[in-house]
Amino acid sequence: MEITYSGPPSGKGASDAWDGGHAKGSIEITDAVPASSVTMLLHMQKPLEAQYAYIAKVIGVAVKMDKMIGSEFDKGLSELKAIAERL
Predict the structure, then answer these.
(1) Least confident range of 23-27, 46-50, 59-63
(2) Hey, which of 9, 15, 21, 85 would disulfide with 28, CB 3.0 to 4.6 Å?
(3) What is the distance between the alpha carbons of residues 15 and 26, in angstroms, rounded to a whole number?
(4) Mean pLDDT, rounded, of the chain
(5) What Cα–Cα distance (Å) separates residue 60 from each residue in 26, 36, 48, 52, 73?
(6) Where do the structural domains in the chain lie, given as residue ranges?
(7) Cα separation, 43 vs 54, whole angstroms
(8) φ and ψ at 65, to 5 degrees?
(9) Rounded-to-integer distance, Cα 49 and Cα 56, Å
């Protein structure tokens, strides 16, 4: 998969585009309110053409991410602690 980044490194105007052969598209931050929300525009080109704008509330993103990967993060921290204690 080829990924290209454009615009500023973060905030409004930051974007990335990807082309993985079967999937192609881009996403751009169109607005950002620090510690509150991020508005993004998703543009899919493959496998079908679609455009979708959405707002992610920062707390909602954090809670969803915790549900999705929280246990893996805790496992990694435990492993890191064990390694540090052996040093």
Answers:
(1) 59-63
(2) 15
(3) 7
(4) 81
(5) 22, 10, 28, 19, 18
(6) 2-86
(7) 11
(8) -65, -40
(9) 22
For the entire predicted model, the pTM comes to 0.59
More confident residue, 67 or 27: 27
Q: Helix, strand, or coil here: 22? A: coil
Q: Of 16, 74, 4, nearest to 43 (Cα)?
A: 16
Cα–Cα dist 33/80, whole Å: 34
Phi, psi dihedral angles at 36 (to 5 degrees): -135, -65
Residues 39-57 pLDDT 10s: 888 888 888 888 877 776 6
Q: State the pLDDT confidence band at 72, using cuts at 50, 70 and 90.
A: confident
